[in-house]
Amino acid sequence: MPSTVAQDGLPIPQRYGAIITIALGIMMAVLDGAIANVALPTIARELNASPAESIWIVNAYQIAIVISLLSLSFLGDMLGYRRVYQVGLALFIATSLFCALSSSLNTLTVARVLQGFGGAALMSVNTALIRIIYPQRFLGRGMAINSLIVAVSSAAGPTVAAAILSVASWKWLFLINIPLGIVALWLALRFLPDNPQKAKQQKFDVPSAVMNALFFGLLITALSGFSQGQNGWLIVAELVALVLVGIVFVRRQLAMPVPLLPVDLLRIPIFSLSIGTSICSFCAQMLAMVALPFFLQNVLGRDEVATGLLLTPWPLATMVMAPIAGRLIEKFHAGLLGGLGLAMFAAGLFLLALLPTQPTDGDIIWRMMLCGAGFGLFQSPNNHTIITAAPRNRSGGASGMLGTARLVGQSSGAALVALMFNLFNDSGTHASLLLAGSFASVAAVVSLARMTQTRQTVES
């Protein structure tokens, strides 16, 4: 097994093996968050479940990730990122088989919860590992690869699912993880480095972990219930419980020397500004991603195939821009790059909302490319800032907050689309795109505000 890394980054052969296992693990974890959506009608039919009940196949996975992300990143700081990642991979492989063998909705839901814990282990420490894998001067390139994998996997989920379902049953959505996971686990055992320093003074606080799970679980459940039109009083009760748990949780974290919810890191201005930028930007992204298919089909009259093709320029532009942004971070301030990228993103969203009544495909494509390129220019530098603003022995906490910010932003965006549809009916897609542009504009301003800040952390 690889020894603890004392030097700045890994030597080239080991670096390539380590980054490939990170890419494979994150690709599977992100894909499985989106891949089941397309298959829900088929799965519900085969398992004799109603459409409303089948939603839990998606929700169970997402909630499991959100409630465990920070706890697992905390354990990564304590026990080692490599160990958490390897255990996460093994759990993800085993639970993917469990999902494929499930014969009832209840069994599949339990399997998806357990698979979500495996996915959370991968997401919780992936950027912390990249900080060890790459030399400091090339860290932006490593972050760019990670951002690229997340962006492309998120966008490609429906396409991959449709391709698999065209030739095989829904069970293969999960079975395909097994050979990929075995390769990733073999690479992880061979190439992943251990922490240069472990936060041995940290103590895992079980009450904090329980309150963390309750807080984020209530948040995602309330947002999901709101988006699905659940009983208003139930949502109000969840929000009241959320506030009460949140107050107790935060007060407990403020009293701890090394908190599970990294409020100490949030006191670093450039870190908290970057987290805020991330939440707003991913909220804008999800608003657009959910609203655009409705916009293209219901408003512009495109069919399903044309809709898929017209959405493709977005992730393609992100794929092109992310590696470029990873190199630009070596020369320019992340606040500037993020601000420019988010301004491009906002402009693309507003231009999509203001399309003419009968636009050509070209009119749509260049606006999609502007959105994708802007998002690609922002994401890598933002992730780089979040992870490097923390001391090295708190990289797990920073990595966990990065993933939590993304998931909270995406969940909020999905709920806001439902609100726009309820408030504006046929104009809901336009309202969603305008709101997405507004969130992206706020994110751009917050990102530019980071240019007045310097990293206030001391490597410890």
TrEMBL record:
Topology with respect to the bilayer: Multi-pass membrane protein
Keyword Nucleotide-binding carried by entry: no
SUPFAM superfamilies, A to Z: MFS general substrate transporter
CDD domains reported for this sequence: MFS_MMR_MDR_like (cd17321)
UniProt cross-references to InterPro entries, sorted A to Z: EmrB-like, MFS, MFS_dom, MFS_trans_sf
Keyword set includes ATP-binding: no
NCBIfam families attached to this UniProt entry: efflux_EmrB
Protein name according to UniProt: MFS transporter
The organism of origin for this protein: Pantoea trifolii
